[in-house]
Amino acid sequence: MAVFRGERLVFRDVGFAVPAGGALLLRGQNGAGKSSLLRAVAGLTPLAAGRLLWNGEDALDDLPTHAKRIAWLGHLDAVKLALSVGEHVADKAALVAVGLESFRNLPAKLLSAGQKRRLALARVIASKAPLWLLDEPTNGLDARSIAMLGEVFAGHLQGGGMIIASTHTPLDLPAAGTLNL
Amino acid sequence: MRLAWRHASDTAAALLFFVIAATLFPFALGPDARTLSAIAPGVVWVCALLAALLPLDRLFGADFEDGTLDLLLLSGLSAGGVAGVKTLAHWLTTGLPLLLIAAPLAVMLRMPAQSVPMLLLTLLPGTMLLSLLGTMAGAITLGARRSAVLMPLITLPLMIPVLIFGCAAVTSPHPEAPLLMLAAMLVLAMPLAPLAGGAALRAAAE
Q1: Is A34 left (phi over 0), alpha (psi -120 to 50) or beta?
Q2: pLDDT band at A61 (very low <50, low <70, confident <90, very high)
Q3: Distance CA B97, CA B164 (A)
Q4: Does B183 or B171 have the greater pLDDT score?
Q5: How many angstroms separate the CA of residue A45 from the nearest CA in chain B?
Q6: Residue A138, number of CB atoms within 10 A of its CB
Q7: A19-75+118-173 is a CATH 3.40.50.11900 domain
Q8: Which of residues 64-123 of B touch A (CB under 8 A)?
Q9: Are strands A23-27 and A162-166 parallel, antiparallel or unpaired?
Q10: What is the pLDDT of residue B90?
Q11: Which one, out of A86, A90, B13, B62, has a CA that is 20 to 30 A from the CA of B21?
């Protein structure tokens, strides 16, 4: 695959495969194109060259269908300050998984940066989508939350899910492949 | 919709702007009933258009800045569908309240009572068209520097034909033709504006 952002070629000749239950970590310095690759896999940024296949079929042909397969966590949390935690994510199990179930009725504007990040992660968990695309999921999280995240990831992979994540910090993903950009 | 309810002051601001802008005219022109009733349809129409523009720059702007736009595009709806739903939300939170408050304003401007239903009948497609074109312009100007200025510059010229036929229907003794023109423009804009808006959203999210 190759991706342009504006006039700039971000990367080219990048290829990878993620099996069911597999994970892929994207590594590279700032500006190497980790976020661009995630956006391209999500279908947000068009591919300049190459193809993205899902079970052998072109995934980007039908974007609304492709969108249902993926859960997206961008570098922004997409948390609306006026809404409560429970209004963002109604799924109780997902809130328990990130340790926010006791804040269910709290407006999101009272959450800390790390708690907002966890709320965004709860949305990913609640989506039940098979492919998780995570852009720096550990941003702003403390050590305990990162450990909690490891369990959540392991559970998702065991259920046959897939994860593609960009990260600078070590992530607890034992069987993950690595793609250096 | 829930956010709009939580931020009800945004809708209230548009409504108050509408009321105050329309109220300025009697102060400027004097309380003469003949003058006022002659300009009433035009004043109500123009003020309603300007008031409906107020919340448009935040319609996508807030979502663009906090990352929600990506989630909306990945919600399983097509991009055009997202623009269409946003249009509907804008009309329900701005167009419809403006429509409801237009009647008392028209009476205040000494508009003959028998023309008021016709004014509301023209404002119904009028506010819908503004929501459609405004949402499209909001999507197009997304990410532009000064988008709050650019957006009315795109929307208002497109609204000129709507304004002409809308006001003509209120004042003319034969309102059927301009009403049909309004309906035709609505039918044209209903599929095209969300499609264009959706394409603009995709481009903005790149």
Answers
A1: alpha
A2: confident
A3: 22
A4: B183
A5: 5
A6: 22
A7: no
A8: 65-68, 70-71, 73-79, 81
A9: parallel
A10: 92
A11: B62
